Amino acid sequence: MTKIGDPVVAIRRAATERDVDVIVVGSHDKNFLRRIVSPSVSRELAHKANRPVLIVP
Questions:
Q1: What's residue 4's pLDDT?
Q2: CA within 20 to 30 Å of 19's CA: 1, 27, 46, 51, which one?
Q3: What are the residues whose beta carbons fall under 8 Å from the beta carbon of 10, sequence distance 6 or more?
Q4: Is 36 helix (H, G, I), strand (E, B) or coil?
């Protein structure tokens, strides 16, 4: 699936439209500085999703 726009909004919308039980997203290691200044889609999803989020390294 390809969506345009904010990835968190698009993933949340797709999860709602498809009535999924859990959202599974990948994550990768970032160094300390990148973690502070760079937004994380997986972290934002974990806080904003209306269903469970499984983050896989």
A1: 79
A2: 27
A3: 3, 4
A4: helix
